[in-house]
Amino acid sequence: KEELAEMMVGRTVLLRINKTETKKGDVVFRVNNLEVKDDLGVLRVKNVNIEIHEGEILGVAGVTGNGQTELLEALSGLRKIESGAIQFFDEIISDQNNYLNPKNLKERGLAHVPEDRKRMGLISDFKAYENLIFKIIPVPVPGCCYIKLLSSPH
């Protein structure tokens, strides 16, 4: 292992890390039997169960088209789920009958870092300070939102 790692990076690699054992905190985010469809109606997320404890960070990786986009959209209130439930602390925030929109989730302290920050996080034709003046405003349709330009620096 060590020789292979050294050949890969061109230097000696320490594969053993001494770290103290940590104790898991309370479960703060739970996903039970989650199923989510894509825009074509294909079931992309099948029976996913996740528990995130206090102090943990969840990262999701995968090959394009295998459901990680739909999973993240469901977890962050951007996509309706087919079945299962998502719980944040002791509150069910999404199930097949309802879900909280991103603004409501943000108010509760849930953050989402999009997989494609250029496509989901900003308008690339705008300057940085112009992107900073956006705010999510809820609309009357449950679970939906739109982005509105509040003011212009010009």
Low-confidence stretches: 136-154
Instruction: Indicate the percent of residues in helices.
Output: 10-25%
Structural class: alpha+beta
Oligomer: single chain
Instruction: Tell me the number of strands.
Output: 6
How much beta, percentage-wise? 25-35%
Distance between the termini: 58 Å
Mean pLDDT: 79
Overall outline: globular
The helix/strand order is HEEHEEHHHEE
Could you give a short account of the major beta sheet?
Answer: 4 strands, antiparallel
Number of helices: 5
Enumerate the strands of the largest sheet in spatial order, edge to edge or round the barrel.
2-1-3-4
Radius of gyration: 20 Å
Outline the structure in words.
Strands 2-1-3-4 form a four-stranded antiparallel sheet, covered by helices on one side. Strands 5-6 form a two-stranded antiparallel ribbon. The longest helix is centred in the N-terminal third of the chain and has 8 residues, at 2-9. It contains five helices and six strands, in the order αββαββαααββ. It is of the alpha+beta class and 154 residues long. It is globular and about 55 Å long.
